[in-house]
Write a structure and sequence with these properties.
The complex is a heterodimer of chains A (502) and B (726).
Chain A lengths: L1 E2 L4 H7 L1 H21 L10 H18 L4 E2 L10 H27 L5 H19 L3 H19 L6 H32 L4 H9 L7 H18 L7 H8 L2 H26 L4 H24 L4 H22 L2 H29 L14 H4 L1 H15 L5 H15 L3 H27 L14 H19 L2 H15 L11
Chain B lengths: L8 H33 L6 H4 L1 H7 L2 H4 L17 H27 L6 E11 L2 E9 L1 H24 L6 H20 L3 H19 L6 H32 L4 H11 L5 H17 L8 H4 L5 H10 L4 H8 L1 H6 L1 H22 L5 H21 L3 H36 L19 H15 L5 H15 L6 H30 L7 H4 L7 H16 L7 H4 L12 H20 L12 H26 L13 H7 L4 H29 L8 H5 L2 H7 L2 H23 L2
Antiparallel strand pairs in B: 1-2
Helix pairs in contact in B: 1-5, 1-7, 5-6, 5-7, 6-7, 6-13, 6-18, 6-23, 7-8, 8-9, 9-11, 11-14, 11-16, 13-18, 14-18, 16-17, 16-21, 17-18, 17-20, 17-21, 18-19, 18-20, 18-23, 18-25, 19-20, 19-21, 19-23, 20-21, 20-26, 21-26
Classes of the chains: A mainly alpha (502), B mainly alpha (726).
């Protein structure tokens, strides 16, 4: 169906998923207030299911707009397969969050309407951030996804770790936002526009080339993105925030926020600065190498599973930076595929971790996993699948994802990067499978108590994620093709699309 | 000739997978049930040691030394019958073997030239091409499948007796079946990608089975070591695979082998790099220098596991990889000579260590490393069929020797267990004179020993002799002098083999018994379910070499009553003819080779005589020696001590590689991340800091440090783009 973005109605249609989700979030907020009045008590127990309903509506809306074709001038929001694809990933993360968090939220007395509202707003922010075709809109998206997460990190007011992590995250986030904004300003100064396509045309067609302003702009933008994706050395906030935040929020941050940040990173650098690849490739390559090497080495010596998963997510940022460095359709496609797998396996692993940690996140140590597989076979089996996939074992989604990132890197001639990736992921086997080793081969000690029976939502989420991870490893064909088509859609400027008119 | 269609090829691999699912489910269900039972009878969490306290109390830590901790994972004892695992575990492998046999006879009748590829589904689309989940059946994969399922069946049957009393009986068969599945995927996979699936899978199962008796620390560490070393090998495999893909655009064997000769220049850098990386993978999996260190430690697993995984099948995967990539290796003479050199060095080096070990399984482990070295000499010098031939015969006699040692350990363990003696059931100094108690094991193991020592007309004589001879006969090209060196090394290692194996047999079965007066009453032969596989393997160890008797030996006066067959050569010919062609086209005709004087038959006779002489001499010397039981023995002195401590290689690796990496990791964590970021993660002393967290944590400059790091990072990126860009 053709859409013309100079018409407001068409604009609204293109923004339908974001609009639906925002409206739904406000609806929930009001509902919650009317239900509770001025009483201080937990929100209605239907809150998670209402939230899930909103996510499902947004999924439908997103599917609805999947076939749209732009005809008029380019707008501020992209209408391409890439955006549709990543929107699904964000909604998947939000849905998984709701499913894995139900019992945790009850146990920690966190059943607050605003928690769900904030998750939905953060999801809207992620969608805007990743779908924006204009740096200013992107900045709005950045703040819209970040502010709820700062709050969510510290939402458990009884937990001082959470408060500390939230404040650090917020202060440093503001700091990095400044870099990002400065980068936008310089890009505007250099190219005369904040529209990504305009910038690309100014550099390529108008022949500005690698002007100093633009080159510095790419570096500053990379700092902002690097902070959000938690690339070393901009990862400093990660261990604090990940460990301090309530576990489901950590899972959401590790999966959703990271995917969104990468989607934005890739969109900006692939569509606005393709002609400056010769200057910014060094950024991607060195960030990738430093991130992969140090995160994997540090993860090696962690005895705390939550922190290990935090470093694991930093390490995965390193792998995805390789896809960025490849700067090709294949690179973007491998990111898309990986983001799906990564969301499933990371949120699944965090889910199992939450079950094992029990009330108050007491048991985050490896010993809590001793003999778990024999006591709770379902948990043991699904966790083993997640860990194998995170490590990149064949016949899991993680393996296919890494193979395609490697392929993108090799086709771009980044052999060194490919070698580092292989070595890093081989090191990662060690710390992932150490958890599996405890689950299958260790005797439980006297402190080990059995985790409670799984909540239905958690069970559904874990089984869904595990089956998904295996399916993506055995039959990845369809999703890989979709990812390639979606990535190609972002990089091709559709025929008939005129230059942006403000 | 008849047309050949494979029969149920997919089922060969699928059957063991089904076995894994059934046995795995069973073990998990039982674990849960017994857990529930324990909780019901005793509300407090029960420590396994309490439940089976007698075993731990009586034996103390010494239970570990037996290699057979009965009380391991007692929280899921063998509740219920062992009937289902007993039927399913070996049953699926035997069924797979029968299907493999049907296919073999079909293939035997047909004159199959091109490999048959059965595609099941498209696994990874890669541009216009795709990587498929497909099996390739040809003469090489057929032979490997027969070895895996055939020897595998015998070992599974043996395990029924060996593992009967183990609480993890179902779990054991689950792992073993899973291993057979992955091993079959490894050899049947139609390309490097699927082969890698099997490659990783067998590594995982090996890891699971080494740590099967996971209770004690040492075994967990052994699993860890195997794991780390194999990661290094996998790195080589993956990089090699990617180089193949980026140069040829395909990963399936048919395409790669067809395209390689026209794509790669003979001796070119790319193909040399590819093959060297592949060989790094092979060296990791097949325990070659410098990556051999994991295999001796892997003996911590149950002995049938050592027989199946660490002797007959998985460790030969590297040899299979080289033989499978024969065209690539033929194009890369530097890689080939490296393969042969590492193989020869390993064969000799491991044999020296085996000379002085007292642990019966350690001797066999180093022997395996040494024999694998031979196989690499074979495939390294371009005699791919010879390498595969030795792979096959070795699978027979080494499986026999391991299972035999398993029977011995089983008997010894029972004897010590009955008297609560904490002595080591695997130490040969505690054995002696066992032939009176276990005659069947005794006879079959002697057959295995003579076979591995290269005594005519047993299997090892033909296969080992062929490798040694080919090393001399293929001495053409620029590396010609090296072939002579390898030839001498292989010859010397063969003599050492005869020595250490005879020593093992004499120390274990002959002379006075040193087990102890009380224990002696409990020594007895193992049950038929264990000795029947031994007898079958012994027969195979005798006749296994007869399928490939070379013409010169067949024409000899005394040794020549076996007819010349060279059947295996003809059988494998279609698989390796292209490599031979590449070899002939680039290196030259083998007719111009300058072998050592004398000819094949002469040297075969010499090596036979030498082997026999060494066996006789060793038997004479060792018989006269009086060994004391392990706890009364003096440690070795001088050079023997160096050998006993395996040339101190483990210690060197630890100091040079392991410690620095762990140090770096800890350093990065402590001084970079933790030093900058937080001190709160421990939660210890948390309350004390909690009050002033805003004051203290933010004003001690921690956040400033973060911000500072961000600025430094930003400066780094700016420097990269501004300085590096143009």
């Amino acid at each position: 169906m053709p859409v013309d973005l100079s018409s407001p109605a068409d604009y609204a249609l293109v923004m339908l998923p974001e609009i639906v989700l925002s409206a739904w979030a406000m609806f929930i907020l009001l509902l919650d207030v009317f239900q509770k009045g001025s009483r201080s008590e937990p929100s209605s127990s239907s809150m998670p299911w209402l939230t899930l309903g909103g996510v499902v509506l947004a999924v439908i809306a997103n599917a609805w707009i999947a076939g749209l074709q732009e005809t008029g001038p380019a707008g501020m929001i992209a209408v391409d397969g890439f955006r549709i694809f990543v929107n699904f990933v964000f909604l998947l993360a939000a849905g998984m969050f709701v499913l894995i968090s139900t019992r945790y939220i009850d146990e920690e007395n966190l059943r607050l309407g605003e928690l769900y509202v904030l998750i939905l707003f953060a999801t809207v922010g992620m969608m805007v951030f990743a779908g924006a075709r204009d740096l200013m809109v992107m900045f709005i998206g950045l703040e819209l996804m970040s502010l709820p997460i700062y709050v969510l990190t510290g939402i458990n007011r009884r937990d001082r770790r959470g408060a500390e992590g939230a404040l650090k995250y917020f202060l440093l986030g503001a700091f990095s936002s400044a870099f990002f904004l400065f980068g936008i300003a310089l890009a505007y100064g250099g190219a005369g526009s904040t529209n990504l396509q305009e910038i690309a045309l100014a550099i390529g067609v108008d022949g500005i080339g690698a002007s100093t302003l633009l080159v510095v702009a790419t570096a500053l933008l990379a700092v902002g993105f690097g902070f959000k994706v938690a690339a070393v050395p901009f990862h400093m906030w990660t261990p604090d925030a990940y460990e301090g935040a309530p576990a489901p929020v950590t899972a959401f941050m590790a999966a959703g926020i990271k995917a969104a940040a990468f989607a934005g990173f890739i969109r900006v650098f692939f569509t606005a600065f393709p002609d400056l690849y010769g200057t910014w490739d060094a950024i991607a390559i060195w960030l990738a190498i430093i991130t992969m090497a140090s995160a994997n080495l540090i993860a090696l010596v962690q005895g705390n599973v939550k922190r290990m998963l935090a470093y694991s997510s930093i390490a995965h940022a390193g792998y995805l930076l390789v896809a960025l460095a490849a700067a090709s359709v294949l690179g973007a496609a491998s990111f898309l595929f990986y983001s799906v797998t990564y969301t499933l396996m990371t949120m699944g692993a965090f889910g199992v971790m939450m079950v094992v940690a029990q009330r108050g996140e007491e048991r985050l140590d490896l010993d809590a996993y001793s003999g778990l597989a024999w006591r709770r076979p379902l948990l043991g089996v699904v966790m083993t699948i997640f860990l194998l996939s995170l490590a990149g074992f064949p016949f899991t989604g993680g393996f296919i994802g890494k193979v395609f990132i490697l392929r993108a890197a090799v086709e771009r001639g980044l052999v060194l990067l490919a070698v580092v990736l292989v070595m890093a992921s081989l090191i990662s086997y060690f710390y992932y499978l150490r958890v599996a080793w405890y689950m299958w081969f260790r005797e439980p000690d006297e402190r080990t108590s059995d985790p409670p029976a799984l909540a239905p939502g958690m069970m559904v989420a874990l089984v869904f994620a595990a089956v998904g991870v295996v399916l993506l490893g055995v039959l990845p064909g369809a999703l890989l093709e979709l990812a390639e088509r979606s990535a190609a859609g972002m990089l091709q400027i559709p025929a008939g699309l005129t230059r942006f008119v403000p | 000739m008849d047309h050949f269609e494979p029969t149920l090829l997919w089922a060969i691999a699928l059957l063991p997978l089904i076995g894994f699912v059934i046995n795995g489910t069973l073990s998990l269900v039982r674990a849960r049930r017994s857990q529930a039972h324990l909780l019901a009878t005793n509300p407090a969490p029960v420590r396994p040691a309490d439940a089976h306290g007698h075993a731990v109390d009586a034996h103390g830590h010494a239970v570990d030394a037996h290699g057979h901790t009965v009380d391991a994972q007692a929280h899921h004892p063998a509740a219920g019958s062992t009937l289902i695992p007993t039927i399913v575990g070996p049953g699926v492998v035997i069924l797979a073997f029968i299907i493999a046999l049907i296919n073999f006879f079909g293939m035997f009748g047909a004159d199959l030239h091109d490999p048959i590829v059965e595609t099941y589904w498209q696994w990874m689309p890669v541009g216009s091409l795709s990587v498929d989940a497909a099996f390739q059946l040809d003469q090489l994969s057929m032979l490997m499948t027969l070895i895996i399922t055939g020897v595998g069946s015998l070992i599974h049957v043996f395990s029924i007796g060996y593992m009967r009393e183990d609480p993890g009986y179902a779990r054991y068969f689950a792992y073993m079946n899973l291993f057979v599945f992955f091993m079959l995927v490894l050899v049947l996979g139609s390309g490097y990608a699927l082969m890698f699936v099997g490659w990783e899978g067998v590594g995982l199962c090996s890891y699971l089975l080494i740590g099967f008796w996971f209770k004690d620390r040492e075994k967990a560490d052994a699993g860890k070591k195997a794991f780390i070393v194999n990661r290094i090998g996998d790195f080589g495999f993956l990089i090699g695979m990617f180089l193949i893909f980026s140069n040829l655009g395909a990963l399936d064997f048919v395409t790669v082998m067809a395209a390689a000769p026209s794509t790669f220049a003979f001796g070119g850098g790319v193909v040399t790099a590819i093959t060297l990386f592949l060989f790094l993978g092979a060296a990791g999996k097949s325990a070659q220098i410098p990556l051999y260190v994991w295999l001796p430690d892997a003996m911590a697993g149950p002995t049938p596991v050592s027989a199946l995984i660490h002797a007959a099948t998985m460790v030969t995967a590297g040899v299979y990889l080289v033989a499978r990539s024969s065209v690539l290796f033929a194009l890369a003479p530097i890689s080939s000579i490296t393969v042969a050199g590492i193989g020869a060095l390993t064969a000799l080096f491991a044999a020296t260590i085996a000379l002085v070990q007292n642990d019966i399984k350690k001797v066999l482990a180093y022997s395996t490393i040494s024999q694998l070295g031979y196989m690499f000499v074979g495939v390294g010098v371009g005699a791919y069929a010879a390498g595969v031939f030795h792979l096959m015969t070795h699978a027979f006699f080494k499986a026999l020797l391991f299972l035999g040692s398993g029977a011995v350990i089983h008997a010894m363990h029972h004897a010590y267990h009955a008297t609560h003696n904490p002595a080591d059931a695997q130490d040969m100094r505690n054995m002696g004179g066992l032939r009176r108690y276990m005659p069947k094991t005794f006879w079959t193991m002697w057959i295995g020993t003579l076979a591995i020592a290269g005594v005519w007309p047993l299997a090892g004589f033909f296969s080992k002799d062929e490798i040694i001879w080919q090393t001399a006969a293929r001495a053409v090209g620029p590396f010609e002098p090296w072939f002579r060196v390898f030839w001498i090394m292989a010859f010397a290692a063969a003599l050492m083999t005869a020595f250490y194996m005879t020593r093992l047999m004499i120390m274990t079965f002959h002379g006075q018994n040193r087990t102890g007066a009380e224990e002696r009453k409990h020594l007895h032969e193992v049950s038929p379910v264990m000795w029947v596989p031994l007898v079958i393997l012994a027969v195979l160890s005798i006749v296994g070499g007869w399928i490939n008797v070379p013409a010169p030996i067949a024409n000899m006066p005394i040794l020549g009553w076996l007819p010349s067959s060279e059947w295996l050569h003809h059988w494998l010919h279609p698989v390796i003819e292209q490599a031979d062609y590449v070899f002939a086209a680039n290196v030259g005709d083998l007719a111009h080779a300058t072998p050592v004087g004398g000819g094949e038959a002469f040297w075969a006779a010499v090596s036979f005589l030498f082997a026999t002489a060494v066996i006789a001499l060793t038997a004479y010397v060792i018989m006269k020696r009086r060994y004391a039981p392990a706890d009364e023995s003096e440690p070795l002195r001088g050079f023997g001590r160096v050998l006993y401590h395996k040339w101190y290689v483990d210690e060197v690796y630890d100091a040079v590689i392991v410690r620095p990496i762990m140090g770096l990791s800890r350093g990065l964590w402590r001084f970079v991340d933790q030093g900058l970021i937080d001190g709160t993660v421990n939660g210890i002393g948390y309350a004390a800091r909690a009050f002033g967290w805003v004051g203290s944590r933010l004003q001690t400059g921690q956040l400033n440090t973060y911000a500072f790091a961000t600025v430094l990072g930003a400066l780094l990126l700016l420097a990269l783009v501004v300085l590096g860009g143009n």
